[in-house]
Amino acid sequence: MEKIKQFFSKLWVSIKDFFVNFNYKKVLKIFTNTKVLNSFAAIFVGLLIGFIVMIFVAKNPFTGEWSFNTALDGLERLFGGGSRSLKNFGDVLFKAAPLILVGLSVGFAFKTGLFNIGASGQFMVGGVAALYAANLLTLPTGLHFVVAALAGIAAGAIWGFVPGILKAIYNVNEVITTIMMNYIAMYLTVMMVTYPKVYDGGLTAINTNFPTAHTPVLGLDKLFPGSNIDISIIIAILVAVLIWFVLEKTTLGYQLKAVGHSKDASKYAGINYKKSVAVSMMIAGGLAGLAAALYYLPIKPAYFRPIEVISPIGFEGISIALIGQSHPLAIIFSGTLISYIKEGASQMQLFGFNKEITNIVISVIIYMIAISSYLGMVINKRKERKRELAKEEETDEENKEEPQVKGGEING
Amino acid sequence: MDYAIEMLNITKSFGPLVANDNIDLKVKHGEIHAILGENGAGKSTLMSILFGLYKADKGTIKINGETVNIDSPNDANDLNIGMVHQHFKLVEVFTVLENIVLGLEDKKKGYLDLETPREKIQKLIDRYNLKVDLNALIKDISVGAQQRVEILKMLYRDAETLIFDEPTAVLTPQEIDGLFEIIREFAKEGKSIIIITHKLNEIKAIADNCTILRKGKHVGTVDVKDTSVNRLAKLMVGRDVDFSVEKALSKPKDSVLSVKNLNYYNKDKTKKLLNNINFDVREGEIVCIAGIEGNGQTELVNLITGLDPVTEEGSLISLNKEDITKASIRERFEAGMSHIPEDRHKHGLILDYNLAENFISNTYYKPKFQEHHILNFENIYHYAEELIEKYDVRSSLGSKSKARSMSGGNQQKAIIARETSRKHNFLVAAQPTRGLDVGAIEYVHKTLVEERDRGNAILVISLELDEVMNIADRILVIYEGQIMAELDPKKTNVEEIGLYMSGSKKQKVNGGSKDGEN
């Protein structure tokens, strides 16, 4: 207990430090960082190409004729739909929470040298576990939510642990095992979710009600009237900060990143490679499980339907992690951004656009990030090579200055 | 006099750095010309200009007296200039033959024709005795054979000027001799050879003339015959270099590391890699394991340090009287072991971590660096500054520089700093001077002797016989996984060690250390 208290007090101190030492130069530095600029440029180009596609498909909703103005209207919604009203922005934040957590799941795995394609599967089992806990247990309001969310985390963690342990002991590639675990999760959840206490198989086909286990709202709906917002966004942000803290400030993060950077060097240093991989996948799975809990537990939840489709959210998580370049704090923004664009895209339907246009925009953004980071890499490499040569020469010079005093003359 | 290659007043700068400052290089037909210099002296830049990888800012290049313009490696090829890079440029999954013709493929009715080139290449192989199996895949052949493939590649392209970048860095002593014979053969035929190196003995052995570069400047061109090794070293480094390591007589005390009946097989148990190894390392002595690469040294180190598990029954490794045969790597560190690994990029450093983070890579869990699992960065960076100061580790950003961005010598210094600052009384150093230049080698040797004088037990694995002779208090020679001899460096010589190394002589070794031997 004492340890946990200590841990959180340290966490609090470092967060406080961040705000106390906050100065605009630091922030400016973050935003002028090439990586961040790359992401912004990619987002801009993505939206631009999305707009070009929209120009091609734009039709006046009344006359059915091609219309540039409709394309402009669509663009306005795509850009501004998420912030048209407080309700819209509240919904953006509400939907961002699970996206951020899934992005963290993938991003955390990336940081530790693993590719978690299985966030979808972890999400699905986490969702079912949360729904079971919400429907089958009888607990007081508030505590019930916490238990249901923990059930989601636990299920997701188990789903991540299996590929983790397989990789650790038998060196099975986690990409393959997580994909397989996605399929297992898909069929398993279809079987489990049709349980009558969890799923109402009638015409409405909705999940049954669980009034005590809903995500608390805590008055946030007063800030964003009319929206579905609840504390899930706060949870997501806190978890992102926690993950950042674990990765950057703790021995666990040091170990996990070391293994991610170099398996051999960390083995040499006496770090338990197997344990690290298993733990890392478990945490990644737990994050996806938590995302599912926040996705299925709100007062107006998304419904878990028994259809044999792998939830696409895990793949969105990959996009979000890539846009955020796997930085836990950046993922808060990239997750919100994707949610924002999605909100805009759903409003574009008013003008006769398919909301799938978001997928085009998002894919273009990912492509652009891939390209820009490649271009950035080439430029950096050239810069670095020059710098390295310069440095070598410098150290060379330094190395010799002192001896030359002692060593006396030299000529060819 | 007509020169095959003339590079006149070559100047090349990268930003503020002048990598080549007004350098002249003249090579005659049939001459073996060495280019000597420490890391970063500008050797590679100069050769890259000749090979068309860089363009000089100033200066002219003349081939056979005619001024030429070399803009790309293709131009260099057309001018019959060939180069063997230090890191070979071969396709691992292609056969030797495919690699040689790659880029110059013959076609027959639109299909790839390998038979015509095969004949031509076979003739080259016979003529120069460059034994290599044309049908073998590159990944299956030895490093020496890969180098022969690179040489064949040049010959197949009718190269008249052959550039070798650090050709001996990856070869065993026998392979080096073989290579030198081939190079002499080329010279006899009138080809011009340029060898980039920082190994002085090899220059003495093979080169006619030697151009020395220092800090991008042309220090001089000397006739190798009339120049002593010490003089060459002085020209290269800019000061007197002392090759012999000064050390007092060792006074070994209690045994620290003890290896008993150590056996080890390869993965499918078809080959015995270590055969009944017995030895001790005592406080205050440096034991060197000499041998040609691939005779079980790597396996021995991996078993002692725990990178590979001991699999055979009856094998015993103990450290400070504690059985560590099955201990984890961290337990071994805790028991007093330090390890300077053979491959500093693969094992020694986490290249994407900065210097400070690398300094704590095997001690980060100690109370000094963490409290309640939270890293204490204040102490970590303070500790890093201490080590940087004490061991004179140089890098662009100090404790915050990424290990990847540092020079090889400083990377090794960082590892040595980490390993010798940790609490230990036994140090394994596997090829601690590999790929380092003279200054850094001196430094490593000095540190090892200091370590010994502090009463630590030291085990050094080395492929360089000079190094073994210089620093060892006791030499164990390994051949095909067996200890062939235990020798006193003061009572033996390189020739004798060589005989044991090649397996042509075997001493009766009763295992363990003999008391009163020194």
Give the SSE map.
The complex is a heterodimer of chains A (412) and B (518).
Chain A: H1 2-20, H2 24-32, H3 34-57, H4 68-80, H5 86-111, H6 119-136, H7 143-170, H8 174-193, H9 220-223, H10 232-249, H11 251-261, H12 263-268, H13 273-296, H14 313-323, H15 328-348, H16 357-407
Chain B: E1 5-14, E2 17-27, E3 32-36, H1 43-50, E4 58-63, E5 66-68, H2 73-78, E6 81-84, H3 96-101, E7 106-108, E8 111-113, H4 115-128, H5 143-156, E9 161-165, H6 173-188, E10 192-197, H7 200-206, E11 209-214, E12 217-223, H8 229-237, E13 255-265, E14 272-282, E15 286-290, H9 297-305, E16 316-319, E17 322-323, H10 329-334, E18 337-340, H11 344-348, H12 355-359, E19 370-371, E20 374-375, H13 377-391, H14 408-421, E21 426-430, H15 438-453, E22 457-462, H16 465-471, E23 474-479, E24 482-487, H17 494-501
Parallel strand pairs in B: 3-10, 3-11, 6-9, 9-10, 15-22, 15-23, 18-21, 21-22
Antiparallel strand pairs in B: 1-2, 1-4, 4-5, 7-8, 11-12, 13-14, 13-16, 16-17, 19-20, 23-24
Helix pairs in contact in B: 13-14, 14-15
Notes on the structure:
The complex is a heterodimer of chains A (412) and B (518). Chain A has 16 helices and no strands. By secondary structure, chain A is mainly alpha-helical. Chain A has 2 domains: 1-32, no CATH class; 86-351, ABC transporter involved in vitamin B12 uptake, BtuC (Orthogonal Bundle), CATH 1.10.3470. In chain A, helix 3 packs antiparallel against helix 4, helix 5 runs antiparallel to helix 13 and helix 7 (143-170) runs antiparallel to helix 8 (174-193). The model of chain A is unreliable at 394-412 (pLDDT under 50). Chain B folds into 3 domains: 5-237, Rossmann fold, CATH 3.40.50.300; 244-336 and 425-518, Rossmann fold (3-Layer(aba) Sandwich), CATH 3.40.50.300; 349-422, no CATH class. In chain B, 47% of the residues are buried. Chain B has 518 residues and is α/β, with parallel strands linked by helices. Chain B is built from 17 helices and 24 strands. The model of chain B is unreliable at 511-518 (pLDDT under 50). In chain B, a hairpin with a 2-residue loop joins strand 19 and strand 20. Chains A and B meet through helix 1, helix 11, helix 12 and helix 16 of A and strand 12, helix 8, helix 10, helix 11 and strand 19 of B.
